[in-house]
Amino acid sequence: VWCMQSDDDLKSMFVGTVMRKIKSRTWKKQRYFRLQEDCMTIWYKSKKAGNSHSTFSVGDVEAVREGHQSEVLLSIADEFPPDRCFTLVFRGRRGNLDLVAESAGEAQSWIKGIRKLIDNLENMGQREKLDQWICDWFKKADKNRDGQMNFKEVRNLLKMMNVDMNEHHSQSGTLEDDEFVLFYKMLTQREDVLRVFQEYSSDGQKLTLQDLKDFLREEQLHEDGVQQYALKLIERYEPSDTAKMLQAMTFDGFLMYLSSSEGSIFNPNMVDLYQDMTQPLCHYFISSSHNTYLLEDQIRGHSSVEGYIRALKRGCRCVEVDCWDGPNGEPIVYHGHTFTSKIFFKDVVTVLGNYAFKASQYPVILSIENHCSVEQQKVMAQHLTQILGDKLLKSPLDGKIPIGLPSPEDLKGKILLKGKKIGGLENCMNGVVDDPLMGEVSDEEDTAEIDDDHHRNDSIRHRVKKSKQRLSKELSDCVVYCKSVHFSSFKHSQIHSKFYEISSFTESKARKHIREAGSEFVLHNARQLSRVYPSGLRTDSSNFNPQDMWNAGCQIVALNFQTAGVEMDLNDGLFSQNGHCGYILKPTFMRNTDERFDPENPQNRDGYKPLSLSVQVISGQQLPKVNIKEGSIIDPLVRVEIHGVPLDQAKQETRYIDNNGFNPVWHDTLQFTIHVPELALVRFVVEDYDKTSKNDFVGQFTLPFICIQPGYRHIHLLSKDGTSIPPSSLFVHVRITKLM
Predict the structure, then answer these.
(1) For a tag on the chain, would you pick the N or C end, based on fewer CB atoms within 10 A?
(2) What is d(CA 598, CA 590) in angstroms, rounded to the nearest whole number?
(3) pLDDT recorded at residue 448
(4) 40 vs 36, 126, 135, 557, 718, CA distance in Å?
């Protein structure tokens, strides 16, 4: 294997190391860890003889964090120095693995070694991923580890791989060579792509430069610089040097191109930062999280700084804290009046300082729901100023009284506090100091939420007290461009409100405003920021549909990032463009204060140009198993969903294919009309059809309509929690045409 070569870190990982696995201050046990020959699997067991071992795949590790960067390791910081400690963070919802090595050198070997292995995996091409995937399955199926496959093992392997194989086989009970060739062909052959290749190939063997240019023009709809582009594709994806010299492409090269990012449905030019980042903050949709400290539900869930790390690393730009008076004058963060566990405010601020700008340089908004006494508010202000230093924005950018919101570009590397403020920006600039006790502000969130939903749910009933609260001047001064105010009406806002004021709406209030005054809401959001958050009744941390709120131009649509599902798929889909930076520029008609865009009646706007979207779902490749335990093979169907303005909401499905998750073929065409392409998201979902109960989720991919590349494209599927599941994909043909 590539990794056996002279790498000292990996060599010591092959030999193996004893490290302590830490679960708490009191649970610290020694385990023997070592890297297996495949360079993909890490094996570990306790030192006692006879105990079973565990393994995990390097592919499941999302990141390696050095030092005391988890609550568990922070709790034993006095016992083990940071240079011996590290944390493995897994994808999805699996818990972290906190480890302490015997020496700093051994810790470094593992930290550097695992990072190298992760990098290598991420740089693998689609073809290598397929080979790796097949090898992984072989290892799982070769039960007696003799490196050969008897028929029973092969049949189990195919079943695990979602392939149906008939019983009639040779008497010898092993896989014979001709069967093996057939078997390998079946694993890797792509009839669907071959058909397209032969349609454009003059001699059935290769695509000449002209053939490839014809394909790129007619199918992929490339217009400019086609010659240059075709040569670049041959250079990049053609494995055969002979073909390269002839400026031609073989079938292998063609398949590699179609499986690459250039052959993906997502336009590569829109993956990186491509939007104007110099508009006022209120002109962007902002990736936002609700009750960021919770990893589970809202009543008994575990509070953790891990919630902040995960959200920030996913590109989230607005995080939330609920602050309450804590012991020894230290404010704490938790979901008030519930049984969720508690963490210190200062630990949250430290994590914010460390992780705010890892995924994106653009500003982070810290939304504070403040239930603290004036004394502990002063402590909060101290922590913010001392821990964040220059990162915390404490005064308007150029020292002058501002006339509008600054842009994400202006605010790069800055953390903005959103909260109550005594007086306005103008006063603090004129050096007028208000009486610090004048800041009586009402507790808008919980009260509004309960009145709104008319449910007198006992566990939350006693929160309904219109509390008036005093604000410390120190904390108030940390709020510059995001002053929280109560919303009375659009009319009132238009006359009285300031550009730096921001109101919060529960999802039901926001929906009511959209129904009754959609275009007013859009206009309001062209002038200032709005935040929408989930109803207090969603104690299970479920989410509302963010699309309805984006349709009205609401910028800060706060979702429970810890809860997988269609709502987070849409959020990930919208923010997967523009360099994953957490800011997406709103369409022009939502930024213009002289336009009247009503999401409920989109046909009335200037520049209304509906489009037709046609998707031919051709085939699927290596779809994941839904349930490894049952011997069942999936019956896949594909659903294409359009999420956008109400007129665009639509979904259509292919038929289902019996018993084939390995290489199902549909050739079904689905047709949609899109009235507001600028706001639409398209979600591709694969499900396992079940006639008696709800279909099981298999995989999905969501992207903005404007990021779709037409022609023959692969869609690389994601799992329920948004992580990739190579080599699972769909192969489709996409056409977008004007209707008017």
Answers:
(1) C
(2) 10
(3) 39
(4) 7, 17, 11, 39, 21
Q: 514, 646 in Cβ contact below 8 A?
A: no
Within 10 A of 244 (CB to CB), how many other CB atoms are there?
16
Distance CA 656, CA 652 (A): 13
pLDDT score at 6:
66
The C-alpha atoms of residue 721 and residue 566 are separated, in whole angstroms, by 10
User: Which residues of 168-316 form beta strands (DSSP E)?
Assistant: 206-207, 249-250, 284-289
Whether 64 contacts 111, CB under 8 Å: yes
The DSSP 8-state label assigned to residue 158 in this structure reads H
How far is CA 580 from its chain centroid?
9
pLDDT for residue 161 is more than 80: no
Which residue, 155, 150, 174, is CA-closest to 165?
155
Of 68, 169, 222, 290, which one is the catalytic site residue? Answer: 290
- 68 included as an active-site residue: no
More confident residue, 47 or 533: 533
d(CA 589, CA 610): 15
Separation of CA 486 from chain center: 31
In contact, 364 and 413? CB cutoff 8 Å: no
**Is position 290 annotated as part of the catalytic site?**
yes
Residue 738 confidence class, pLDDT cut points 50, 70, 90: very high
User: Residue written as tokens 């890297």?
Assistant: 35
**Cis-peptide into 710, omega within 30 deg:** no
Spatial CA neighbour of 316 closest among 600, 577, 572, 658: 572
Q: Is the dihedral of CA 417, 422, 423, 427 positive or negative?
A: negative
Q: Is the pLDDT of residue 646 over 60?
A: yes
Q: Which residues pair with 688 in a beta bridge?
A: 636, 696
Q: What is the mean pLDDT of residues 283-301?
A: 89
Q: What is the DSSP letter of 678?
A: G
pLDDT at 226 over 60: yes
Query: Of 415, 410, 408, 411, which Cα lies nearest the Cα of 392?
Result: 415
Contact 717, 729 (CB under 8 A): yes
Share of residues in the chain with pLDDT > 70 (%): 86
Six-digit token string for 351: 């994590």
Cβ-contact 245, 209 below 8 angstroms: no
Residues across the chain: 740
d(CA 440, CA 437): 7
Give the least confident one: 141-150, 229-238, 406-415.
141-150
Measured between alpha carbons, how far is 233 from 222 in angstroms, rounded to an integer? 13
- Burial class for 223, CB neighbours closer than 10 Å (0-12, 13-18, 19+): exposed
The angle subtended at Cα 287 by Cα 281 and Cα 290, nearest 5°, is 115
Other CB atoms within a 10 A radius of the CB of residue 703 amount to: 23
Helices (H), 83-174: 104-122, 126-141, 151-160
Environment class of 667 (CB within 10 Å of its CB; exposed 0-12, middle 13-18, buried 19+): exposed
Mean pLDDT for the stretch of residues 355-363: 96
Q: State the Cα torsion 177-183-185-186 to the nearest 10°.
A: 160
Residue 252: burial class (beta carbons within 10 Å; 0-12, 13-18, 19+): middle
Candidates 335, 383, 524, 714; catalytic one: 335
In 3D space, the residue among 552, 534, 563, 565 whose CA is nearest the CA of residue 683 turns out to be 565
